């Protein structure tokens, strides 16, 4: 076997986000093939063979690549609509448009979502896709293909909805699948695309949408399917007070008890939002090691509330960060969520004791890897882990006078990305994607957004 080619970066600050939060004020990182080979303080070891590139990273902070744990890519082409609504009113306003999506629209929206995140330091993304109109084409294949083209590590959470208006749910009747069709298509997607290898670029999770858009049977059978196939489970939970009321009215219990009764708590589950959780809900998540995707900007945009992240972390709940769909977070960037997670939680009950800058960085990296079930492979900079990392530029006007680089990254302006590596391959240089033409993506997303608006207006 040919020796792995090495890339050496030196003279940078490094935040490893390992178990001890090890940091180096000035250090080096050596990549060998798609792995991190070594890192530490000072200069890289002398005499390394097969070095194909040396990067003088003076003025940079190196961190693990950011991991996004909740998103809906298709919403990239329905941004800026229903901007003053709460969740339920917003959903009812948008479902009729969303139900008209087709494969070219979903492909363009996925490329837009992925491009925006990648140039902001995301190296692992996920898409919770749950709208599959009849005859709309191979939407899962289009999304997975977009992630592969752009070179971003990816989990497709194959979503589904089967509780429409006629069954007391929120989506219109024509926007949902049947129980059997949803389960069969989800299983086929896992079989076609889920990769179990250490350096997998594509994984699939089973992901019924939410308690108010899926039947109890779909939740229960979805959990059984995921466990039979050995893949993870994802859904929305405890997002708003309206959802809590809905669960009490329909099921006679709150969302967390309902999830537990349908098999939806466990170390193979992660749930988006979890805003309205009481102490016993948090205990249940901690006891079962159920993960949380914290989405502070979306929760603010939809006036959902502030998730109790400090209490979750204190109880031992794995927590990652999520952009959420860009119809409720138009920026579509994850690096700004580090800042928003810290700021929003300091407005909550714990005030200044809520989150530190380092905890915010951990949520966006290692915490994300944990909830996606990939903490062995990614999420921290350690020898043997996959080479997913970002060089943040810290010596320009925006950051040069901020005392500490981690504080600069989390509290300062969105930091420029000089280089981002996924699986040892550079996908971003000086803030621009290397794997696709951003202007072409911008153009096609604009066109597909217009086409969707026209089709929805005619319907
Ligand atoms: Zn969501």
UniProtKB/TrEMBL annotation:
This is 8-oxoguanine deaminase. It comes from Streptomyces vulcanius. The keyword Ligase does not apply. GO terms for molecular function: 8-oxoguanine deaminase activity. Residues 61-396 form the Amidohydrolase-related domain. It comes from the Bacteria. Its EC number is 3.5.4.32. The keyword Translocase does not apply. Keywords: Hydrolase. CDD domains: ATZ_TRZ_like (cd01298). InterPro entries: Amidohydro-rel, Metal-dep_hydrolase_composite, Metal_Hydrolase, MTA/SAH_deaminase.
